[in-house]
Each structure stands twice: as C-alpha cells, then as structure tokens.
Amino acid sequence: MSLMNKTVRSLLLGSAAFLAVPAAMAADISGAGATFPYPIYSKWAAAYKDKTGTGLNYQSIGSGGGIKQIKAKTVTFGASDKPLEQKELDESGLTQFPAIVGGVVPVINLKGVQPGELTLDGATLADIFLGKIKSWNDPAIAKLNPKAKLPSTLIAVVHRSDGSGTSFLFTNYLSQNSAEWKDKVGAATAVEWPAGIGAKGNEGVAGIATQTDGAIGYVEYAYAKQNKMTYTKMINHDGKTVEPKSETFAAAAANADWAGAPAFYVILTNQPGAESWPITGASFIIVYKKPDDAAALGEVLKFYDWAFKNGQKDADALDYVPLPAKVVDLVEASWKASIQASWK
Amino acid sequence: MNSNAQVASYTATSAEISPSALRRHGMWDAVLRNATRSAAITVLLLLGGVIVSLIHDSVLTFKTFGFGYLTSESWNPVTEKFGALAPIYGTLVTSFIAMLIGIPISLGVAIFITELCPRWLQRPISTAIELLAGIPSIIYGIWGLFVLAPFLQKYIQPLLIGAFADVPLLNQLFAGPPYGIGIFTAGIILSIMVLPYITSVTRDVFETVPAVLKESAYGLGCTTWEVVRHVVLPYTKTGVIGGIMLGLGRALGETMAVTFVIGNSHRISPSILAPGTSISANIANEFTEADGALYTSSLIAQGLILFVITFTVLAAARLLLLRLESQAGKRA
Question: Which chain B residues have a beta carbon less than 8 Å from that of A62?
Fold first, then answer.
C-alpha cells in the first residue's frame, strides 16, 4: 500500500513538474499572418529566445488569415503585407505599425539578356501584363532600351495564382502607372489577370519563368537574388533608372511620408526620391490598442523593439531591409501614444 | 478474481453453456453492435456537418449572385464579382481527359497482368502500380511543373498544334501558344494519378472470374480479346465501373498536383492547351488571402458545387449499375 502511495505521489509530483514547464513558457508570443516576412521573423525569434528566453510562435498562414485571427483574438498580433485602412482599424479597436521592408522585382527569361540589362517603366510593365505588348521587340520596350538587341520572341506573362502580398504590391504599382490597369484590373492580393498564366508561390513563378523563353514575372527580391534570376531595372517616380538592391528599397522606405499618414497607412510603391525602388513594400503588425492581456502585448512590443535595434544584420543576411531609424522612432512614439501596454 | 471467472466460463462452455456465459455473450454482442453502429453514425454526422457548413457559408454567394454565379466566367476579387463557370469547366474537362487516357491504360494493364503476363513479371508490375498510388500529390505537381511541362512544351504541344493546324474544329481545340502548362497537362497528370486506383480494383475483380468460364471460352476457340470482351468484362462490369468511379472521384477532387500545372487562369478557352483553373485549385490558391465575407463565401460555394458534382457522378454510377443489373436479369 505504502509503496503504491509513493509511486502515485512521485507520479503526481513528476507531472506537476512537467506541467510547470509549459506554464513558465506560457509567456511565448503568439502571432499569425503574412508569409512574406516569415523567414526574418523566425530568425529574429531564434536570436531573441537565446537572449531573453521568450519564444515567438508565428504561423505564416497568409495576410488574410492573420487579419481574421487577430480579429478573433486567437493571437496577440496579426501580420499583413497590406495595411488596413484607418476605418477598419477603428471598428475593431486595432492599430498597426510597419516592421520590415522588402521589394518586388520583375524577372525575365530572354536569351542573351543578363540581369539588370533591360530597363522597364510602370506604364510599359502594365501594358505587358495587360497583354497589349505582345513581343519583346515592341517599340515601347525598344524605346527604353536603345542599346539592347531585342528578339521578336513572344512575351509569356507569369503571375502569382495564390493570393499574396507580393501581388498586391505589384498590382498597386501598376495601378498607379496605368489608368487602364486601374480601371480594368485594380490592386489586390488576387486580381482578375487579363493575360498570362498563374503559378503558385514565388517558386512556381520562378519555375515557369526560368523554363519559358520570353517569360516575364515578378517575385520577391530575396527570391530573385538567391536564385540568380534575370531581373530588370526600373524607372522610378523621379524618372531615374534604379537597380533592385537593399539601398534602393531603404531609400523608398526613408522617403515615404510616414509621419503624415494616419495609422502608418503607407504603401511604399512609386515613392519619390532619385534612389527609390518603385515596387517596395512594408509588412505590417496589427495589434489591439486596449488588449485583453496587456502583458502579452507588452512582450510583442518588446520583441519588435529589440528587433528594430538589433535585427539589422539578420535582415541584411536574408535580403530584407530593416526600417529606417527615423521610422522606428515614429513607430515607438505611436506605441506610447495609443497602445495600453508596457514594453520598456 | 476476474481472470478466475474467465477460466471458469471457458471450462463451462466446453462442457455446457451456463446462463451467465450466455448473458455475457449477449452483452458482448450488444457492445459490438453499438460500437460499430456509432462508428457508422459518426460518418453520417461528419458528412452531414460538412454539407450543413458548406451550405451555411455559401448562402451569401447565392443570395448576391443568384443563379448567375454558375454561369458567369468573371472572377474579380477587386470588384467582388464572382462566377464559378471557369473552375467548373476546368474540373470537368481535366477529369474527362484523365479518364480518356487513364481508363484504356488501366484496363490494359489489368488485362495484361491477369491474362497474359508471365508469372514472374506479375508481382513487379503490380508493385509498381501500387507504388504510384503512394506518391504524394505534391510530388506529382512538382514533377509535372519541372519535368513534364517543359517536355510537353518543347516536343508534344508544337507537334499537336502543327498536326491539326489545317483541320477545322481540331485546330481550335489544339491552338497555341505552347505554354507547357494548362488544361491538357493537368489532364495528363491526373490520368497518371488515377491509374493505380482503376488498375488495382479492376485487376482484383478480373481475378475473381472463375477459371472454368474462361477455359470454356478458350476451348470454343475464342481469342484472348474475345474472352476479355465477352467473358471477363461482362462478369466483372460492376467492379470495373466501381474502380473507374473511384478514379474519377480522385480526379475531380485532386488539388495540389493540378494547381501546379493547370495555369490558374480564370478564363475558358476553346483550346485545351490554354491555361485554365479547377475548383479545388482555385480554393487552394485563394483561400489563405481571401479577405471579405463575399470572397470567402464564393470559395466555399465552389466547395459545395464540387460536392454536388461528385455526388451526382456517384449517384449516376449507381443508377447505371442498377440498370445494367436489371437488364442482365431480363436477358437471362
């Protein structure tokens, strides 16, 4: 009898100790949303956990899913590549801030053309994706590239078939540069594409673009760089030709009017500045102003505060662009002003 | 205590059945009956739950677009104008192509294995077919995108386009440009995926044909083809149709592999080489980023439509089988 009692007691104690471990880890931050920033968030999370012991459980289920999850209060923060409008935020008592910047680049597959050899502008790109420019030696492309030898190859347009923040930035940029695109197609994470074939994910677009002669598509910058794809240069808002790289994405982020935008509703496409890459975008974090669990939200803000100050190297390594310092100051000022959670 | 009782009951049954053992047997029967019954009811409840939630969530779509949802080709998330015609068309056409290619090959393989194949080759072929069924669909998708599509684009599609260029109607069906991916490629991938299902079912039913029937036919001087046509197939038609329906069910609902190779474009083109979309591919592509109630509802409504299509196909197969059986009875 006494032996059995002992066993039971030790079992109970053991399980109590076991239960105590998750209780100590319950301070883990939980978030869900955009897939685009997932690699950098998970890298930051690993470094942050080593330092503070607080982990991040981030589910990259897509921006739409992230918005739904935060509204259902199943996570402490949601993440979206497309900022919410002030009205939608106010309806649910939410607020948002940008966390990381990245770029979208057009990629092509044309025999004999090296990365960065061709230059395009917004109007031409829109006409290509509208199906109006059908071959590579079209006068509109030739005018932008007087030196290039352009073949008569037919253009095969490739776009994302899954809803994605990348498509949102790209279509948003085209809408700003072509009235016809804006009227006929518009800007969203998924649109009614007037031409071409849809491929699933960056890897699908890259796969079809590299297999098809004459193809043009668009992928996230990191993806184009790591796979050594043939990207094009773009003519930006100021009429200057720019190459896609960290510096030009950072320039677009720095030149945007963050202070004047309510709820940081800034889409970084077509920003002014001689150095600005025109198809740049920020990924946003969405949180409650008056959270049910202020301590948990405090941990989220602490995490991003740490990442803004210590995460540059990791971001560079993964070809993301950290927020410019003055934008970080604005973001943290907005936390102080509107979020009821302590993070210092 | 318990084990003692069991031993006692066993010794009792060996001699005579005691009333307590009888009661226990009755109790076990009742337990088994209820357990299996609740398992069966669980399936019905799950199915009912799926139907109810599909209908509940797609009400908004049908309220907004009415019957036009089924006949409109437009799919515009920006203006929230949705129509399901292109995905329905893509689902049906890719499945049709898959059946067109898959059924003859599957039946051929099954006939070869059961009637003509040397014994030592039977096992390797059967195993190979079963392995095909075990390959995850994402692998078919990636293989289709990186291996099959470039091959079709380079060799097969230009050939088809060229061969039918001067034939009216067919030149519409096989019109270029050769993208490599599209409805046709999706159909081919699906035909490979349904092959193991149809083959293994038909092989199994072919093996149930009594040897004496076949041997009598051979004895009368029938060729192998005549034996298959007049003895094996009539004897096994229920099973063969069942196998085909199993394959068709798989083709209609297949998602991942199709998404990779169908081209995902919401347009209906007369050419089967052009990109299209299917119901399951469309849902898989857009569900994650679908914001707004109407967008989500329109995707769920497509799920409901796929459910109805699958149900109709299965019901039609049942009716066909019933007709066949009653006719067979009349002739006898």
Answer: 288-289
